[in-house]
Design goal:
This protein is mainly alpha-helical. The chain contains five helices and no strands. The chain has one domain.
Length: 99
Amino acid sequence: MMLAALALLLAAQDGEAALRARVAAQPVAVRRYVARRAMCNHWGGEEPYDARRRREILRAIRALRCARIDRDEAALRRRYVARRATIAVIDEAEDLLGW
């Protein structure tokens, strides 16, 4: 059981390292988008358990411009439509948490 869990952890780390390498090979605009998307996903899933925490979450969401992340993604998809590797990285960013 412990070996299986360790194998899963190592596979996840390898996958993250591979994704980071693919992201690093992308244009600056895509790298910035991936980082923003991951942080918007992170903050969007945070629990506002009190007023102070709610303000912290809202401040982060505003600073990251999360309200327009989907529009920014659509623009990148149009700009890089012919670059399959870039579109694949954008696709993978959909589920990232933190970066």
